[in-house]
Design goal:
Protein name: DUF1223 domain-containing protein
Structural class: mainly beta
Pfam families: DUF1223 (PF06764)
Number of helices: 1
Number of domains: 1
Organism: Psychrosphaera aquimarina
InterPro entries: DUF1223 (IPR010634), Thioredoxin-like_sf (IPR036249)
Strand order of the largest sheet: 1-2-5
Shape: flat
Length: 108
């Protein structure tokens, strides 16, 4: 989906929210490490990827070229890093840790 089409993204999120959750995930940060736990709430189908996304809630960029030259644009939830940490089959509860140095926010 193209991020420049917010109505398509909003519609996809609304459709997804109608489905009951399959997995409960939680994470807790301690210094440069994050502890991730997960458990299935109902039958999960197929392997699942455990991913760690690091993002900045807000970022401003000064545009120096093109039709927007001279403007400052604010961006929301800018991805800084995205890693696949593991593949999980969901049969047993998941408990793992991952390094996440720095203060950039996390979404697991």
């Amino acid at each position: 989906m193209v991020g420049a089409k917010p109505m398509e993204i909003s519609k996809a999120i609304a459709v997804h929210e109608e489905y009951p959750a399959t997995v409960k995930v939680s994470s807790e940060r301690s210094g440069d490490e994050v502890q991730i736990t997960a458990e299935t709430l109902r039958r999960a189908t197929g392997p699942m990827l455990v991913q760690l996304l690091r993002y900045k809630p807000n970022r401003e960029a000064r545009i120096t070229r093109g039709e927007n030259a001279g403007r400052t644009i604010s961006y929301a939830n800018v991805t800084q890093d995205w890693k696949v940490l593991a593949e999980w089959d969901g049969r047993a509860p998941l408990s793992m840790s991952a390094m996440a140095p720095g203060r950039i926010r996390l979404l697991s």
